[in-house]
TrEMBL record:
It comes from the Bacteria. InterPro entries: CHP02996_rpt-companion-dom, LRR_dom_sf. This is Leucine Rich repeats (2 copies).
Amino acid sequence: MPNREELLAAICVAPDDDGPRLAYAAWGEEHDPARSAMIRRQCEAPSEQVADALERRWLAPLGLARGEGAMRRGFLEEIDLGDLICKGLATAPCAATIERIELTGTTISDRGVEALLDARAHLPSLQTLALI
């Protein structure tokens, strides 16, 4: 069976294909059953109430509240950092699938810009950085 990094790489290569996400969920049955359940639920039959509760659980390690990030089929896809500094992105396993980062109405310090640029190597799916 592929390892975690190989499964995440497959998700990044085919972000619209549920197959790699469901393969990750199968791998996760032994490693993180709650997350596996969330991935399956969001891929197979989304339940808003269950998905919302689990989404909050997965946003918390990044210091994000509900509404500051969006999950799609079990993986973090978008975050709104607001005033948050980017240093946690480089170590967060779920950051590998982020496609868009939006900085809205915020002033980001030099340290924040440096942290974001340093984190870029750990954000293989990042397509858009919006400064609004």
